[in-house]
Amino acid sequence: MPWRLIEDDGVDAAAGLAADELLAQRLGAGTSPPTLRLYTYRPHSALAGRFQNVDNEINVAQCDAHGIEVNRRPTGGGAILMGPDQLGIALTMRGRGDGQLAKPRTLMQRFSAGIVQGLGMLGITASFRGKNDVEVDGRKIAGLGVYRDPSGGLLYHASLLVDLDVALMAQVLRMPFVDLDDRELAMLATRTTSVRAGLHRAVSVAEVRARMAAGFKSAFAVQLEGGELYSDEKAGVAALVDTKYGTRAWVHQDTTVEDTTGGARTRTASGAIELRVAMAGPTLKAVHVRGDFFAADAAIIDLEARLRWHPGARDKITATITEWAQAHPAESVATDALIDTIEKAVRQASGEPYGCFVTPEQSHA
Amino acid sequence: MRRPQQASMNHDVDVPPDRHYDEARHLWAQHDASTGNVRVGIDAIALESLGDLAYVALHEVGTAVTRGDTVGSLEAAKMTTTVVAPVSGTVIARNDAAMTDPSTINQEPYGAGWLVEIAPSNWEQDAADLISGEAIAPWVVAELERLRPEDRAS
Asked: Do A302 and A213 reside in the same domain of the chain?
């Protein structure tokens, strides 16, 4: 069965997200075909992850001041800023005979193949890594998420950075750690990359979109037929905007999982390890590592990436740090001390309200 | 009671035989004969696939559900999915502690990690569509054989 390809620009956040969910729902019910949507949002839209507390992740006052729409995705993960230079990729399809239970990483990896091949056609060597990122030379270029509708339809979501307005993002999205020095802020900017940065040329979103379509066509061995939403789908989208994505109850809903931050410092024979953690309940959302003994920034970037959206339990952290150390044999940091420091920070976060490293006027406890 | 094809009884996942299971969604339903209520949770096979849960949201007490209706949602490793009622009835309790700390569900899926309690409207009929008793062990083996090869191939 061929997939439908829908291309849109300037999509309203509520309508765009409603369309993605509706297509997954209808696919599971057998009333819509598999659909690949390649679209951009109207400038700009700040989108929180499914369960995030919006006020902890997005500066809503700044968004209001700049006319930036705030909404909540059906998929998980962190808050993102979408606009004309970030390509939204939404694919609805059925699982491959896996009922309800394929592992998230397996699904994400399957989905990422289209993006990786599309980037390859542009001349960028990318790969799937960790649980849910597509990276280029260790830097994130696309974040992935999956929503499984009760009907059985799967919605794969990705935001591909064709370019990134770091200054606007810093204004709109709340950083988990705010008292960083200039060097650390500069290093944070190296955590991500974009298509334009990778190609060193002003590639258009249209060209990237065409390559992504070709990438999915190749990776999934399917035919793509250009189309648009059917009239009954448009009516369904409008209804879902009215009842869900256009409502304050959806966008500003609370979660019972508390956001917290913590920090710890350990002195070792080879230097001091200092790190902070931002947590959602028992899960590490982000880790920021300071240490003067790391040989390569790439090792720190990799360490922080591996610990993003990672369980806070010591045994899980130990397994991940052990793998990280094996991947970076030149690093002399004592892994036991590193694990202990992370655990100390996690424990501190457990007893601290969100924003313990945030200055009072920016606190959102 | 549904009875899948017999298979080896050896498996390494804890799926206790004292309750019923929704075979497609891997939820358990435990009927309390003294109260008539049904406690619902996620089984260990589902948790092995999902991994560590980051968030869980459950519908409010008083919500009326038909078997197959959504009673909550969850997130694991950036995948979000819904929790679907394995029986029809009314939600009479939800596990707020598990919502606050979803790791409880991974650690104690059949105990402290329960999700909701439902006063069933037709337990006998719904139970007939669930896996129970002697059918559990071969079903578990078949599910693990079905699910684990895909993971190894990825």
From this structure: no
